[in-house]
Amino acid sequence: xxxxxxxxxxxxxxxxxxxxxxxxxxxxxxxxxxxxxxxxxxxxxxxxxxxxxxxxxxxxxxxxxxxxxxxxxxxxxxxxxxxxxxxxxxxxxxxxxxxxxxxxxxxxxxxxxxxxxxxxxxxxxxxxxxxxxxxxxxxxxxxxxxxxx
Length: 149
Description:
- By secondary structure, the protein is an alpha/beta fold.
- The chain has one domain (35-148): Response regulator (Rossmann fold), CATH 3.40.50.2300.
- It is built from five helices and seven strands.
- The protein has a five-stranded parallel beta sheet, sandwiched between helices. Strands 1-2 form a two-stranded antiparallel sheet.
- The longest helix is centred in the N-terminal third of the chain and has 13 residues, at 43-55.
- The chain is globular and about 40 Å long.
């Protein structure tokens, strides 16, 4: 939208000139960042990953449990979930399955540093779910390249 703006001279109290100004009023935000929900019960890992993602052009939020990820997903509506597999309250695979039922188009990337992950992944496969998994520790460059694919 374009409007005319007048230059006002405070000394004389006179409008001395007008010129067109482009004003964006109530325009939709066309620069939306991909939203990423990061879930890990190790707060340092969740916070660090969210910080790296935010600095790399994503809108990332960190949560510290599978239950909290499940609670936040419907309101935050992330494009991607990055979750640790082994967490105390609700493991990352079960959280991912439940979040996918709420947000069918969500991309899911799991990571784990524990051997028990294989059994949980096999159980998910038998239920028809296939998830990509990265081994902990995840190098930030590896994570970013996976997210941008």
